[in-house]
Amino acid sequence: MVYSEKVLDHFSNPRNVGELSDANGIGEVGNPQCGDIMKMYLKIEDGVIRDVRFKTFGCGAAIATSSIATELVKGATVEEALKLTNQAVVEALDGLPPVKIHCSVLAEQAIKSAISDYYSRQGIDPVPIVGEIGDCDACHAH
Amino acid sequence: MKRFVYADNAATTPVSEQVLEALLPYYKSGYGNPSSVYSIAREAKTAIDDARKKVAAALNADPTEIYFTSCGSEADNWALKGTMRQLAKKGKRHLITTNIEHHAILHTCAALEKEGFEVTYLPVDHNGQITPQQVADAIREDTGLVSIMYANNEIGTILPIPEIGALCRERGVCFHTDAVQAVGNLAIDVKAQNIDMLSLSGHKLNAPKGIGALYIRKGIAIQNFLDGGGQERGRRAGTENVAGIVALGTAIEEVSLHLEERIAHESALRDHCILELLKIPRTRLNGDPVRRLPGNVNISFEGIEGESMLMLLDMNGICASSGSACTSGSLDPSHVLLAIGLPHEVAHGSLRLSWGVQNTMEDVDYVLEVLPPIIERLRSMSPLWEKIAASEKQ
Predict the structure, then answer these.
(1) Is the ipTM of this complex over 0.90?
(2) DSSP state of B159
(3) pTM greater than the 0.90 cutoff
């Protein structure tokens, strides 16, 4: 597997790794069968993502995509974070091997899942805002 | 201090100094085509004959029963396709193998199924073992061939080859074994063990890549796999890989001469490594704990994924492998780990260290120093580990 320098950097020095005790939006995607699970913790205030942490079970690319995704959404508004695409994650990492593209999809879904949780906690139906979050099979179909 | 430790000898081995010295002349002055008549050609021909004798001696075969191929996969393809296509003429269209074979066997079987042959894949037990009785029960009127690996490349399990050989001989069924992992690691005697065909590969025993061999017992009817010139007594065409053949001969003679020491050395490294790694909580040894290849260590660490473990090991100068999906390029983890009943998530967290003759106890100790913090680090950031740890507290 040939990874970019950026992937190796985010893999070996992951940013924002861990848990967030005062998170108000937590999302988890993937499953152990597929070999990757991503869990995102968001602290959202006034519509802005003030802090973010992640925990990931997965390959080098899964850890790197989680790490870069946290950097991309930290300080962003919820609206901006919802626009984060897997393509943007891939580009920010200077590319991913084709078999690892699903890791970037997982990162996008992990952010969306945490935002959905945030809306649910506010008593707001997240589906009209966030949309349906694909399941693991869908991500592997990429 | 960072070292370089190569612990992936089941994938390939370094070419030994002795082998390199033996083969180099055939890339320099000894480049003659063995089929030609002049002196450098005759020398090449003699070198091939000499290497053939060494391979035969290592297996207790006759030199006329050894055929050089380009690799172990070619030997496997030839053995299965060559005999089944021949046996089909006698109405024998069934072959028996296991579900933990190398892809060189499994994908060849799949190709034969497309040609209309029937294949029985014997399921292994939790240690990766099969019993001779399973083979006996699977043999039918139309069974032409049994092909069972000598030892598994991933989990190191050594299968009961002599017993299966005796059974097949008694039942009149041709018996092939993929011994790519076994040659150089175990004592093999094709006569005493009733083996009709055996595949081997040079680069697993300190010869270079690109050379293998198939032993075919005299009297076994097999079709050619590669047609052309009259090389290999008209059975396998193509100008001989003289340097590779010489290398294989030198390497196999070398391992045969020192087999016992080699087994003792690699077993000591393996046993120390397994003992220490199993002290890490929530780990399990994969493969047969007793009937096991001398250098093979295969351990699953719950809650983490293999590729990230390999990348961190690599950053510390350690070369190893894993059965995780992410290292196979597919979505499923290793078919061998699933066959022995591991849940997907445990298979994803497997690590194979395969120790070789060039490794030292210091190499093992270095891995034992570097690996536990890597496991700890990956577990600390794993939501799966979080769940495992939480369920343990309850």
Answers:
(1) yes
(2) P
(3) yes
